[in-house]
């Protein structure tokens, strides 16, 4: 395929280039001159850890220039000669079957190439296994687009109009006539509470929670509701399939996992792995919605195979509401405590929504048992199956929702106990994972509380609700704790180092806005002793070394340590070459005794003993060293691995009109080593805004009579706009973690949102004295 | 511009195309488009200028913001045929001779984006905002940039980037 | 979006001639609402008549001290126009409370009057809607009606008019100049928009072949004691749940003349002259504001999800009257409610 359609690679931040010119030059200096650089490296790197300028620094995004010039191309923006455009037709009913589809009028429109339905589509797999992608729920039959006449949810794709341009496709789509045989549908969670699927207890209960609750002098029971929410990434879901000829296709897909899509497409269409390439050089946000392959990729491949042409399918904003969503849920929390604030018992039940055909769920309730010291805890989780598409992961799945309920309940119990909410949490502070009993690899939540409270001015809080005001506005201060897992997954990284001091680092991961390109460049530059602009990053291509989907905040830790592993392999080879040089100053050095710094292979012990990388490679006539290593993280069953946060929020609520403004938020995060101070700050700041949206704005509205989402747009599904966001302060507390992984990285994509909605809800209670237990807290709920 | 074909045509038939001339990023560009082609689709699909983004196609997100005759508008709710003769400036036209526009540089400096999909629209909107000269304070910037949704929520950084450019100009 | 033809109008007479010649055609100016609805297949004109090149873009003073606003003046230009900003700040404020800067740069004065409802069921062609398809039924009455009307509803429709600008124009008692095949006529603003009654498909009393050419403001702009207070689900770029425009003529602390209108609660900007009259000659105080609000809302009727709007409207009216009486109008930038 033409070069211009390949994955763009990313070089280091241009703004740092000038600064680092000197460092580049070091690589060709004599040994004597290199001493200073090597000394610097030795001073920065204590023992085994590389400590160089990029890791941790506030480096600007290396893909920034592409993104601010319009050069970054997203899935629906790739082109090919004779590209066919598509328009998806969605079901008007929520359940039943298609009795008849009449496409004759549509097909007669000039420029229409074909209309695909379940009746005339090319063959696709007929077993569930083929449709189970890497992150599909264990139980159920994944949805098969255009497979048969069954309607499983409103908006389900039932036909695909293919035309020479998008306007014609859209017009012809309006001329497809469908007759349905509707069946009775149910889309209301509350109407099915007597018909649930009980899940196995998500974690082992401890103690005797019922008795402990009964005997607790202070108790709280609360029921908390979270509605369906949609991710609404700014980029619409899109797939462009390039028909390469010879049975080969290249798919530009909006996904968080090119290799997941690759495997899925190969299975569904029975294709050879080498005939399919999936690429996602840029992803315009996903937040979990791109973990599983979405139906547009199936439709695009179906169409390309039917026509033997290149095809682009782009969903409309409306159609994106027929993908996955954060499940609506009802959570019941019971807490029991002694009058001094000692927590005796926690009971957490969740009832969450899934489709009729797959059992998607995460464990909302387990966070409650983990976080706070309590001798007794029990959990229950029920699923309600509705005539909707399958729910899915959305930013910090289960913690965003489960911790919201827990932290709202903890606030209520603190009020009942007449304890300051922060003091109450400190009272329940646990140095161990309460479920497993294991100590944490690191946990600096205490410092989050301290620094967050100090930055916020928490000590000036009047405890009583409605006690603080600013003119006509009631002022409320609320806080909450956040927790997420520090996960890591096996990952492979390839590094190709050339003698001119340039490295290409590749991995089939993605950058969905998370800053993966940038942190990869930073880590590689430090490990290889290169300037940032000496490193090119390639990702978002299924042909690159193995990576799982980007989700769960696990990629930063995985890929950065993966780069460390492969860099060491490169270093080993360089050292081997250096030793072959006559009178090599490194003749006796072991690999662990040297580092790469400033273009040199340098002894840690004696910085004067150094060989330039270029010299070592040239001496042996090597112009390129390529190494690919898979990094597997040792299973550490003696520790719990988590990130933590403390969130403090200020709201101002107009006393008569109940208009709520979130005027200040402080989020203090303990997440191990921060790879990039700038992008990390953005991650957490953005997550806080998600929390604001969850607390105040976001709700997918279903008309249960039609079984249909009515605010399927981004005007009436409200996400925060610029005016909704005021002062957000992000603090990263120091947290050295020498256990979790060599770099001590714990991930940041999720932790920032966890607890935010609770902190805001608690602040609204503090301002108004009114406890709203159903999100979002729109102003009508405060009347 | 050529007058559209006056002959009645079936709604089933292909639309007749109309010649328009747009000055796109300073370059006179002739284009034959059907009436139903929006300015956004004309740029993205007919001219393959994909820097301008489609986020909602209904004027609800601002990702498609471009400058038409110096004013920021949503190109998704404008027909290309209606803009015959107009000067259209998009993200691809802001840098000169490879040197980033100060707003582009400010967005990089302040990390005023994450996924980058709303970014071209944010930057064009910010350039339009400064040209309007109505927003001075942070709260005015916030209000007058509220037509550009950023789901990654880089909002405070966007405000900082704009303030940097305002301070410099 | 269906396939449509495109034509340009050369002058007002030509525009009117063209639309009269083809009843399936529609005028297009800013396009911000029409194209939105065409993409949803809610509007399906076979022909668009582009009126953007007509000479209707002036804002000029009238001999009797008022201002005549050409129908094509963009909303943003109007809001920032010195004549409007200084003499009709309530109108400027209302405009700036609506939509986004980009949309205001596109949307025309005439088009703002012609905005159609945001009712979910009007937009979704799969569901019955009397406004979109007369006789099909109203899905909102028993459906999701949080954003729908509480005043002036009928059994056939509970949609609201979404404009902010029109709420201010109602208070200002603007006049709408229109041109039709039979010549020109002037429609008082209060008569321009309709209540749904049994013909909710008709939003306005504009005839199918008529073109709005101008909106005329009387001399009195209530520039001293006014406000536009909009309450919505997020702090910007959202349609009103309830909005209130107020213009007061004060003599010290006494209200000589009061006008106010509500947005977001009815099929048209809602005024109640009896409630306004009750304020005239009174010393401004919260009690009489409460009474006025009570009068306006005496026949308000809530549905399953929007009953809160009655109380919200009551409180918003009171606050807006306080803001106007105190000369502390609501800022559209500072989100703290004055």
From TrEMBL, chain B:
PROSITE patterns: 2FE2S_FER_1, 2FE2S_FER_2. SUPFAM superfamilies: 2Fe-2S ferredoxin-like (SSF54292), CO dehydrogenase ISP C-domain like (SSF47741). InterPro entries: 2Fe-2S-bd (IPR002888), 2Fe-2S-bd_dom_sf (IPR036884), 2Fe-2S_ferredoxin-like_sf (IPR036010), 2Fe-2S_ferredoxin-type (IPR001041), 2Fe2S_fd_BS (IPR006058), Aldehyde_Oxdr_Iron-Sulfur (IPR052914), Beta-grasp_dom_sf (IPR012675). It holds the Pfam family Fer2_2. Residues 18-94 form the 2Fe-2S ferredoxin-type domain. Keywords: 2Fe-2S, Iron, Iron-sulfur, Metal-binding, Oxidoreductase. Signal peptide: none annotated. One of its GO terms (molecular function) is 2 iron, 2 sulfur cluster binding. PANTHER family: OXIDOREDUCTASE WITH IRON-SULFUR SUBUNIT (PTHR45331:SF2), OXIDOREDUCTASE, IRON-SULPHUR BINDING SUBUNIT-RELATED-RELATED (PTHR45331). This is (2Fe-2S)-binding protein. It comes from Microvirga alba.
From TrEMBL, chain C:
SUPFAM superfamilies: CO dehydrogenase flavoprotein C-terminal domain-like (SSF55447), FAD-binding/transporter-associated domain-like (SSF56176). Keywords: FAD, Flavoprotein. Transmembrane segments: none annotated. InterPro entries: CO_DH_flav_C (IPR005107), CO_DH_flav_C_dom_sf (IPR036683), Diverse_Substr_Oxidored (IPR051312), FAD-bd_PCMH (IPR016166), FAD-bd_PCMH-like_sf (IPR036318), FAD-bd_PCMH_sub1 (IPR016167), FAD-bd_PCMH_sub2 (IPR016169), Mopterin_DH_FAD-bd (IPR002346). Gene3D superfamilies: 3.30.465.10, CO dehydrogenase flavoprotein, C-terminal domain, Uridine Diphospho-n-acetylenolpyruvylglucosamine Reductase, domain 2. This is Xanthine dehydrogenase family protein subunit M. Residues 1-222 form the FAD-binding PCMH-type domain. GO terms for molecular function: FAD binding; oxidoreductase activity. PANTHER family: OXIDOREDUCTASE (PTHR42659:SF1), XANTHINE DEHYDROGENASE SUBUNIT C-RELATED (PTHR42659). Pfam families: CO_deh_flav_C, FAD_binding_5. It comes from Microvirga alba.
